[in-house]
Amino acid sequence: MLSSREARITGLLSTLRQNTHDGDSPDCDVASSSDESVLFIVFTCFVHFCYYMGVMPLDNEGYDQWIWHGESLPSSTSGSRNEAHVNSETHVQNETQTNSQTQADNKENDETHESNEEDDKINNRIDEMMRDMQGDFSEMPHEFKCLFDNAEKPLFSRCTKYTKLTGVLKLYNLKAKNGWSDKSFTGLLELLKDMLPSDNELPNSTYEAKKLCPLGMDIERIHACPNDCILYWKEYKDLLVCPKCGSTRYKRKNVGVRDDKKGPPAKVLWYLPVIPRFKRMFANPKEAKNLQWHAIGRKDDGKLRHPTDSPQWRNIDRRWPEFGTENRNLRLGLCTDGMNPHGNMSSRHSTWLVLLVVYNLPPWLCMKRKYIMLSLLISGPKQPGNDIDVYLAPLIEDLKMWNEGVSVYDVYSRSNFTLRATIFCTINDFPAYGNLSGYTCKGAKACPICQDETPDLWLSNSKKNVFMSHKTFLPVGHPYRKKKQAFNGESETRVAHLPLSGHAIHERVNIVDVAFGKACKTTQKTLWKKRSIFWDLTYWEHLGVRHCLDVMHIEKNVCESIIGKLLNIQGKTKDGIKARKDMVEMGIREKLTP
User: Fold this and answer.
1) Looking at CB atoms within 10 Å, which of 65, 132, 197, 444 has the fewest?
2) What gap in Å lies between CA 536 and CA 534, rounded to an integer?
3) pLDDT, tens digit, 9 for 90 and up, residues 166-213
């Protein structure tokens, strides 16, 4: 028997439902709007209000957070709904568990991640997609209403296995896995639409299929000067000609003829904004929990397993305690390198990628493909080289969120917080190291640590600079320091050069004046080619380690040289006639004289 209050709520709910389907406006001020999207929001809000008042159980125990908006989804989503239920008191207790329990949690997280990967192969996880996008509900009510309608509409009459949305997503998943072109996928859709019953809801083109799910991340397509002088962005966005080199913004069939007609752009930068992607990570309770692993999940025993254990991580926490005390603030690794998207067909083509890695995540997740974010794609055919700062500008602009932060809702802790992010370091090979840092990483003074004091030796036969001061890194009094014939023919009394502080380097690069672009040539003769755009970040000069070399290239180059020498592999060994002649001139290894 319903109470009077429950009866009134139930009656009003039935009135809302009836008017929603019949198109008549209910007798209330808010719902009298002719906008169907407003009525849809009012209806879903009212459903959840009734649930919290105890009238509607919604047939799901543990549902105490508004993440389902009235849509009917497959029964397999009940497990995800229960997983979304997090008790705040239990959350606090879990943070104070012992290390043994932490290890068990880490193992469970790993197994859960593997099972999630299997789930991705089995179904489209529409429920998780809707849950992750709940923050955009107020911004796109019409799109969400269409999405929910497509999730309930059968693919064709009497079809119980697939809805319009699930069918298209499964087909699109096949397209992505197998690398089908849009043209081939359109042909497949047309054929399937002709095979299915005439009342089927399958779209007949790739364009229509993409419109079914308008929840993807935004991509900014920014035109660039073909000589890497500028981006047609901000104050240059309306220009048709580069103000520095005079190159046209668009490709022309007739060289030298300029007109106002727009064609394909001469060069394009694809920028994938990072802030919406950061917000999306915190919209999933599992991902939001993993982002705090560095503070509440890792084993802290003084051993170096993760960037969290590094001195730089601790220095950041000490210097900026407001940043360090918020476990959810992100520390990112930035890496870049060139690639040839055409395989072996054009070996000179170079397209550059800029990737971000989130170091908050545990080591078994942070290097997974799922968590490596592509932020910039710089089109070829020529590499940007020293002008890469021109293309990094949109990313650095967003990463200046260090100063003010961005308001983000954390689903795991059920609270809003101000998110800040920092570039922890960059990771590249040595040539890219020079492009990002601005230091000249070749020639006689190629060491970015020693700089002007780099001890080098020119080999007249091999025609190259070598650096023979390795003994300076040995402890004072080490017996190898006195050995001459075994090394470079000299005893060593010096000590290794200490790296310059960030403040000292900042003073050096501030006096460098450079104009970007392949057509702009500088006459400056300094070790620093430019003031890197990373110095625009207020914290950059205070970092102890700003640029790192990736392990893969060090392993390859060093191991390849050693093995090539030991096994005398043709083309890999460094022991040649020129090297033997250089040793004669140095007065060492007389037994190896040719």
Assistant:
1) 197
2) 5
3) 899 889 889 988 889 999 999 999 999 999 999 999 998 998 888 887
pLDDT reading at 284 higher than 80 = yes
The answer to whether the beta carbons of residues 258 and 272 sit under 8 Å apart is: no
Nearest to 430 by CA among 443, 414, 411: 443
Give CA separation, 94 vs 50, 105, 289, 359, in Å.
Answer: 32, 10, 11, 22
Residue with tokens 């890695």: 357
Maximum CA pair distance of the chain? 107
Q: Which of 250, 441, 247, 403 is nearest to 322 (CA)?
A: 403
Per-residue pLDDT tens for 121-167?
Answer: 434 455 555 555 544 555 556 767 777 788 888 999 889 899 998 89
Range with the lowest mean pLDDT among 252-256, 440-444, 569-573? 252-256
CA angle 457, 463, 464 (to 5 degrees): 45
User: Distances from the Cα of 354 to the Cαs of 170, 241, 427, 543, in angstroms?
Assistant: 30, 27, 11, 21
Distance CA 197, CA 40 (A): 31
Q: What is the pLDDT of residue 558?
A: 85
Contact 16, 48 (CB under 8 A): no
Asked whether residue 114 carries a pLDDT value surpassing 50, the answer given is no
What confidence category does residue 372 fall into, taking pLDDT thresholds of 50, 70 and 90?
A: very high
Spatial separation of the C-alpha atoms in residues 153 and 226, rounded to whole Å: 48
Which residues are bridge partners to 118 per DSSP?
none
Looking up tokens 């205070």, which residue turns up?
A: 542
Q: Which residue has the tokens 């019953």?
A: 197
**539, 402 contact by CB (below 8 A):** yes
Residues 6+ apart with CB under 8 A from 352: 336, 337, 338, 339, 376, 377, 378, 380, 383, 384, 388, 391
Q: Tell me whether strands 464-466 and 457-459 are parallel, antiparallel or unpaired.
A: antiparallel
Hey, how many other C-beta atoms are within 10 angstroms of the C-beta on 74?
A: 13
For 89-104, write each residue's pLDDT tens digit: 444 344 444 444 444 5
Note the pLDDT of residue 421.
Answer: 95
The pLDDT of residue 522 is 72
A 10 A CB-CB count for 83 gives 13
pLDDT of residue 216: 66
Alpha carbons 133 and 289: distance in angstroms, whole number: 17
Q: Is residue 592's pLDDT more than 80?
A: yes
> Among 205, 121, 74, 77, which Cα is nearest to 63's?
77
Task: Please say whether the beta carbons of 448 and 546 come within 8 A.
Answer: no
Question: Pairing state of beta strands 415-419 and 406-410?
Answer: antiparallel
Closest CA to 450 of 478, 473, 427, 480: 473
Helix (H) or strand (E) holding 396: helix 388-399
pLDDT tier at 75, thresholds 50, 70, 90: very low
